[in-house]
Automatic annotation (TrEMBL):
<dbReference type="Pfam" id="PF13556">
    <property type="entry name" value="HTH_30"/>
</dbReference>
<dbReference type="InterPro" id="IPR025736">
    <property type="entry name" value="PucR_C-HTH_dom"/>
</dbReference>
<comment type="similarity">
    <text>Belongs to the CdaR family.</text>
</comment>
<feature type="domain" description="CdaR GGDEF-like">
    <location>
        <begin position="273"/>
        <end position="386"/>
    </location>
</feature>
<dbReference type="InterPro" id="IPR042070">
    <property type="entry name" value="PucR_C-HTH_sf"/>
</dbReference>
<protein>
    <submittedName>
        <fullName>PucR family transcriptional regulator ligand-binding domain-containing protein</fullName>
    </submittedName>
</protein>
<dbReference type="Pfam" id="PF07905">
    <property type="entry name" value="PucR"/>
</dbReference>
<dbReference type="InterPro" id="IPR041522">
    <property type="entry name" value="CdaR_GGDEF"/>
</dbReference>
<dbReference type="Pfam" id="PF17853">
    <property type="entry name" value="GGDEF_2"/>
</dbReference>
<feature type="domain" description="PucR C-terminal helix-turn-helix">
    <location>
        <begin position="443"/>
        <end position="500"/>
    </location>
</feature>
<feature type="domain" description="Purine catabolism PurC-like">
    <location>
        <begin position="6"/>
        <end position="126"/>
    </location>
</feature>
<dbReference type="InterPro" id="IPR051448">
    <property type="entry name" value="CdaR-like_regulators"/>
</dbReference>
<dbReference type="InterPro" id="IPR012914">
    <property type="entry name" value="PucR_dom"/>
</dbReference>
Length: 505
């Protein structure tokens, strides 16, 4: 259901919605579900495509930084839109949130009257469920027609022609290496460009086609203006099994490929080390060789997989990958000599991966053997969960996060109770936190950047865009509040740890 149609519904209109940010992102934007929550840490629990309703209670008491992070996290998860009710608790939406929503392409609506959240969710979600059932039925009809064509001896192009004809799209099946395996146009011709000359492509949908768990191809459906992208995606997803059977007749996967797919599923689910070692050996990994996990969160995870595989092939001796909805994961087998340099080169290469806005990439810590692959993957996932809170920039232009740069946060999140963390931060940084809160200053951020730079005042001043003299004045104020210059004392490590833990909940 289009966001524009949701906003026109009488239950939403009753709340008097006003678009406050990202108007260019509204046209054609699909809503998968309507959800209501006051939890600021809701982003990791969402799948993307949701219209999120908020009463503003939690936002009203949150810090400016947390409000901005809230918007960025929702945009990163692919949320369709955010609607916030204003009133006595939250008289207006903060300007910083509007700027963050605009820069991240997240439509943000102000609900200027009391919003009937329950009524909105019941009405809209009921419509969405009905539409989903109808789309699935149509997708199954297309799948049955393709199966009949295959059963009567039709080849790959003939099966694709059925899909193209019944969806009104041009379709192409592409190998992981980028080679065209088959194609058909909506006019029934054998070329995927059959309709392109007559009708401009409005959207392209990509769906992975596995054969026995091994990625064998990617199905691309180009839909002209006027065809529902949601219908095209459902039709493509329902055709995967039939296309897999057609491909199986031409190119059955080998045992090594099957073991690689099974290994990645085991890594993704956190299997025991002995199981990973069994599968790793069968998939061609050195059992005792160093490994590092790669995790990509993106709405285009399936489409990114061939490009990721090419980067891995150029960067490391051996690798395997696996796509699961909004996550694309990989395991890189690193050389025994120059291991850390190879990992650093991989991080740099991943920075060149062309990913959509809102995507995030993390590389897990080194695992000593394939048995530690699941641990490396879990730490990469933890890094992506923690990184938005810290406000620290990622490496390279494509938001690559190095788990090693978040080792303190990862350890604290896993092993230290939240209450103990907060007490430690309060006791260590209390006067600085109070100063920032009372005077809206940036002393904590300044201290964090200075400590992260290795106490290099000139470098920290450049990163903060401050004159050096201003930087010295800020540091002196910080030293006065925290008991003096920590350099050369035993307090430096504790102070640095506290600045890393301060953004955590």
């Amino acid at each position: 259901m289009l966001l524009e149609d949701v906003l026109k519904h009488r239950t939403v209109q009753a709340a008097d919605p006003l678009l406050r940010a990202a108007p260019d992102s509204v046209p054609g934007r699909q809503v998968r579900w309507v959800h209501s929550s006051e939890v600021l840490d809701i982003a990791p629990l969402l799948r993307g495509g949701e219209l999120l309703l908020s009463g503003g209670q939690a936002l009203a008491t949150a810090s400016d930084k947390r409000q901005v992070d809230y918007v960025r996290e929702l945009a990163g998860r692919g949320v369709a839109a955010l609607a916030i009710e204003t009133g006595p608790t939250l008289p207006d939406i903060p300007e910083s949130m509007l700027i963050a929503a605009e820069s991240n392409g997240l439509p943000l609506f102000e609900l200027r009257k009391v919003a009937p959240f329950v009524g909105i969710m019941q009405e809209i979600n009921s419509i969405l469920v009905g539409q989903s059932v109808e789309l699935l039925q149509r997708g199954d009809e297309i799948s049955h027609a393709m199966a009949a064509e295959l059963a009567h001896g039709g080849g790959l192009d003939e099966v694709l022609a059925v899909l193209a004809g019944q969806t009104g799209t041009s379709v192409r099946l592409v190998s992981p290496a980028g080679l065209t395996l088959g194609s058909a146009g909506a006019d029934g011709g054998g070329s995927a460009g059959g309709t392109a000359g007559a009708l401009a492509t409005a959207s392209t949908t990509a769906v992975d086609v596995p054969v026995r768990g091994v990625l064998a191809a990617r199905l691309e459906l180009e839909a002209p203006e006027g065809i529902d992208p949601a219908f095209v995606r459902v039709a493509g997803e329902r055709s995967v099994d039939i296309l897999g059977l057609a491909l199986l007749q031409r190119m059955p996967p080998g045992l090594k490929e099957l073991a690689g797919a099974e290994l990645m599923r085991a890594v993704h689910s956190g299997a025991q080390p002995w199981r990973l070692e069994q599968l790793g050996a069968a998939a061609g990994f050195a059992v005792d060789g160093p490994v590092a996990a790669v995790m990509i969160r993106s709405a285009a995870s399936g489409r990114l997989r061939p490009a990721l595989d090419r980067i891995l092939a150029d960067s490391v001796p051996h690798a395997a990958s696996y796509a699961d909805k909004l996550e694309l994961i990989a395991l890189a087998g690193l050389p025994p000599e120059g291991t850390r340099a190879a990992r650093a080169s991989l991080i740099e290469a991943l920075g060149n991966l062309d990913v959509p806005e809102g995507s995030a990439i993390a590389v897990g810590p080194l695992g000593q053997g394939v048995g530690e692959a699941a641990w490396s993957m879990a730490e990469a996932r933890r890094t992506l969960d923690l990184a938005p809170r810290t406000g620290r920039a990622a490496s390279g232009p494509r938001q690559v996060r190095d788990a090693d740069a978040f080792s303190a946060e990862r350890l604290a999140a896993e092993s230290i109770d939240g209450g103990a963390r907060r007490d430690f931060v309060r006791r260590t940084l209390g006067p600085i936190l109070e100063h920032d809160e009372q005077r809206n200053s940036q002393l904590l951020h300044t201290l964090t950047v200075w400590l992260d730079s290795g106490c290099n005042t000139a470098q920290a001043a450049r990163e903060l865009h401050l004159e050096r003299q201003s930087m010295y004045h800020r540091l002196q104020r910080i030293f006065d509040l925290c008991g003096g210059d920590p350099r050369g004392t035993g307090r430096l490590a504790g102070l640095h740890l506290a600045t890393r833990l301060a953004p955590l909940p």
